[in-house]
Amino acid sequence: MTKTPYAELLAMLSRHRGVVGSFVVSERDGLAIDSNVQIGVQAEAVAALAASLHRKARLACGAAGCGVVTFLRLDAEKGGVLAAGRDDLVLVTISEARANIGLLRVEMMRAAKALT
Amino acid sequence: MPDEIRRLSDDLARDPSSLVFMPLADALRRAGQLDVALRVALRGLDRHPYLPDAHDVLARIHADRGDLERASDEWEMALRLDPAHAQANLGLGFVEFRRGDLESAERRLSTVPLAEQTPGVAAALAHVRSALGARCANGIAAVVPNGSMPAEPAAVSRPMAWTEAIASAEAVVVVPTPAAPPVAPALTTPRSTRPVSEFPSPDPTRTKQLFDSALEGSDQHALLVDGDGLVLAGAYTDAGGNDVAEVIAAELAGVSGEAERAMRHLGLGAWTSLLVEADDAVVAMTPAPNGSLLVVTASRRTPVGLVRLLLDRALARARDWLVRVS
Question: DSSP H helical segments within chain B, as ranges?
Answer without folding.
Answer: 2-14, 21-30, 34-47, 52-64, 68-81, 86-98, 102-110, 119-138, 154-157, 161-165, 245-252, 255-266, 304-325
